[in-house]
Design brief:
Blueprint: H1 2-7, H2 30-35, E1 43-46, E2 53-56, H3 58-69, H4 77-107, H5 113-133, H6 147-160, H7 168-171, H8 177-187, H9 190-199
Antiparallel strand pairs: 1-2
Helix pairs in contact: 4-5, 4-6, 6-8
């Protein structure tokens, strides 16, 4: 999101990136808990305000930045509502993908058939929802690229392209052709490439 804002000429969106190693439990350190009492990444600390403001939860961060910089959020009330619906769709759905499917398929210490089957079916259902929605549109919301695309792509776009959990063949993500077309278009964006490079 910050790289997209910079690409739009919003120079105030310049940022410093600080990595939190969740494998080492750094999200539970007292300094981080002051920024997010729920001990989850990401967190944005807006130091353009006095005092600095902490914003946590991914979709809230996206909405905050979209409003602050008047960008990547439709102005038309109907289109804006559609965008917010898809933004919150991601907020409520991605936990089934990451904490559900990803955990039991890739990270659980022992394979367990029932949760793998349960979360596989839900993940495929969600991919189907996206595929049908994207069948007749370039991006998630009417008009143009938005914070809904930015929120959904890292989870579902990268999954469809085989970049999460080594699960593309298992989920038959090649069958979600509209999701793949959308995911490829977003991955090709210069700001997305810069954002991914800066996170490495």
């Amino acid at each position: 999101m910050l790289e997209e804002l910079l690409a739009l000429g919003k120079t105030g969106a310049a940022y410093d990136l600080h990595t939190i190693d969740i494998g080492e439990g750094e999200q539970f350190g007292s300094d981080f808990v002051k920024l997010n009492p729920n001990s989850k990444i990401p967190v944005l600390l807006d130091q353009s305000k006095t005092p600095a403001q902490s914003i946590f939860e991914s979709c809230v961060i996206l909405f905050y930045l979209a409003e602050k910089y008047d960008a990547l959020l439709p102005e038309d009330a109907k289109d804006r509502t559609e965008c917010m619906s898809w933004l919150f769709w991601q907020e409520s759905s991605a936990s089934f993908l990451g904490g559900g499917f990803g955990h039991f398929y890739k990270y659980a210490p022992h394979p367990m058939e029932y949760p793998i089957n349960r979360y596989t079916m839900e993940t495929k259902r969600q991919l189907d929802v996206l595929d049908r929605h994207l069948a007749n549109r370039e991006y998630m919301c009417a008009g143009d690229y938005s914070i809904a695309d930015i929120a959904i792509w890292p989870w579902y776009g990268r999954l469809a392209m085989g970049e999460l959990y080594d699960a593309a063949e298992f989920l038959d993500t090649a069958s979600y052709t509209h999701v793949l077309r959308w995911a490829g278009a977003i991955q090709a964006r210069a700001a997305v490439k810069k954002g991914l490079e800066s996170a490495l």
